[in-house]
Write a structure and sequence with these properties.
By secondary structure, the chain is an alpha+beta fold. The protein is built from seven helices and five strands; from the N terminus they run αβββαααββααα. Bound molecules: FE2/S2 (inorganic) cluster. The site of FE2/S2 (inorganic) cluster has 12 residues, from loops.
């Protein structure tokens, strides 16, 4: 195992649960039975102030989750959701499992933030603060027909992905009118 990865296995950082209010996510491997839970605390600017994990699996999974907690603290939720950097010396499948659990926790936050939104316009993408009206405008102005096209046009959906179903419903409605 790579030196930094080995360090995180023998000295795992941020083990446990983030303080309340926290948002949690899980991921499991059907292949090896490993599972990991991520929890995050997010500030009013959508910055991740705490990231913690619990893992039952191999040394690579523990190291991947520990490394990831250190990487994402201080990032905004969309920044953390789009991390693509592969950790050196760690099984890519373990790294992917840790990222899936993190993404699940970010989606938990995004869904809660959307539910709590009290602005005038319905908020669809909480990662990038994109309203329903803006998405409708982009679809009408540019003839967009897919979620990917909407993401390219106005960023909606380009973070954690928790809004994809909602964007698809707006597209479907626009296509029917
Ligand atoms: S809410 Fe995260 S990408 Fe839209």
């Amino acid at each position: 195992m790579h030196r930094e990865a080995a360090y995180h296995f023998f000295n795992p950082r941020n083990v446990g649960d983030a303080d309340e209010p926290r948002f949690a996510g899980r991921a499991a491997s059907l292949t090896c039975g490993a599972h990991v839970r991520f929890s995050i605390q997010v500030d009013e600017n959508h910055g991740i102030s705490q990231a913690r994990f619990r893992a039952a699996g191999c040394s690579d999974l523990v190291a991947a989750a520990s490394l990831l907690t250190e990487q994402v603290i201080g990032l905004t939720t969309p920044e953390a959701a789009t991390i693509t950097q592969e950790p050196v010396g760690i099984d890519p499948q373990c790294a992917r499992l840790a990222r899936e659990a993190l993404l699940d926790a970010i989606r938990d936050f995004s869904n809660a933030a959307r539910d709590d939104w009290a602005g005038d316009e319905a908020l669809i993408c909480t990662c990038f603060f994109v309203s329903e009206r803006t998405i409708e405008h982009e679809i009408q102005a540019h003839g967009l027909t897919t979620v990917t096209e909407v993401s390219k046009a106005c960023n909606a959906g380009a973070g954690c992905g928790s809004c994809h179903q909602l964007i698809q419903e707006i597209i479907d409605t626009e296509l029917c009118t």
